[in-house]
Amino acid sequence: xxxxxxxxxxxxxxxxxxxxxxxxxxxxxxxxxxxxxxxxxxxxxxxxxxxxxxxxxxxxxxxxxxxxxxxxxxxxxxxxxxxxxxxxxxxxxxxxxxxxxxxxxxxxxxxxxxxxxxxxxxxxxxxxxxxxxxxxxxxxxxxxxxxxxxxxxxxxxxxxxxxxxxxxxxxxxxxxxxx
Length: 179
Ligand code: HEM
Fold this sequence. Notes:
Elements: H1 3-17, H2 19-27, H3 45-59, H4 63-81, H5 83-87, H6 92-96, H7 99-110, E1 118-124, E2 128-134, H8 140-153, E3 158-164, E4 171-178
Helix pairs in contact: 1-2, 1-4, 2-3, 4-8
């Protein structure tokens, strides 16, 4: 997992819960990096999982909800860092249906070792989209947060339903309807 995902995560934890919480979740985890992340480095996903598990245990907020809120913050990072990529799109459905064959392809050019999910478009109309998410990391709620913010970016909203295809969340169907 890319360092920027860790540095932005710990920044948000500090902003919301304070530096003590950052220290607490780092010291209670067994981290090869010892919690020292740089935005250009690459670290094990298991480190993120431990940080999330400890933050969840200390705050009582579920990992899914932590990932949802974190993704909404991360969209702002994307807007600041890759404005050109977002400017390619005029419509949220067009943008979301292009993650797999355009957006994440560009991401991979910047970070060849990025660990990305796959999104398969099952059905698409002008106002709706059904897409299947697949990833061993089961970060579907990170996807949900990015999707919410994608609609907000285009000054609109949508109803997004998640249907687990696999119980462990490694395969999830997103049913998206523009409001
Ligand atoms: C992961 C970039 C749009 C879904 C990532 C990662 C980056 C990235 C850097 C982390 C890779 C790693 O740590 O190895 C971008 C950029 C985008 C974009 C620059 C737009 C310009 C989206 C959108 C979605 C999405 C709109 C909506 C669903 C995900 C998910 C992951 C991810 C779910 C987590 C990894 C996983 O589930 O396996 N993306 N992304 N991305 N991205 Fe994107």
